Amino acid sequence: DSGVTQTPKHLITATGQRVTLRCSPRSGDLSVYWYQQSLDQGLQFLIQYYNGEERAKGNILERFSAQQFPDLHSELNLSSLELGDSALYFCASSRQGAYEQYFGPGTRLTVT
Amino acid sequence: GDSVTQMEGPVTLSEEAFLTINCTYTATGYPSLFWYVQYPGEGLQLLLKATKADDKGSNKGFEATYRKETTSFHLEKGSVQVSDSAVYFCALLDTGRRALTFGSGTRLQVQP
After folding, report:
1. β-pair partners for B59
2. Is the preceding peptide bond at A8 cis, omega within 30 degrees of 0?
3. Measured between CB atoms, which of B32, B36, B99 is closest to A58?
4. What does the pLDDT look like over A48-81, one tens digit per residue?
């Protein structure tokens, strides 16, 4: 158990809908990262937050957004969902100055 | 940009065989290197890391050495077990960007 929690574990929704994925980092970690794992694209970095502020952006679509709250949990919002958005979404966290990122169990999103 | 290349899988071995999974990288500067493991239905677990040239990371019998001259970080284990069956990901961290870049993953199947 990495100490990073994600909810829900599974999510099934229809095209055009909007969903919110939630992540709680390890105690004491200020950085949160979101990654997408799909069969065709592999594991891709989406976005990073540090202590409530956006720090880095990767291959995140404009339909996707994220935020980190004062209690350090983070939410990833996916809107106008398409079939191609079906994937595993992972959250990871790290301590200030540390190299390692610890991953949560992921949320499997299925868009039908 | 940064990239990581891993050998294609699946790799199928008998129990107690020697394992090597090749990983090479392309990056500017001096990235940190990691191996993560993903067991079926689970998230990514950090297996080992190396943060500078000639560092050797090790954990649970797995080892990898950061070779700057060949830009490689090959994963090895002297004697694999059935329980090592999983997908292994090589990754690099550009400290300036703080986001992990992953290889495509190598599936290992160990037969009794």
Report:
1. B62
2. yes
3. B99
4. 999 999 999 998 999 999 999 999 999 999 999 9
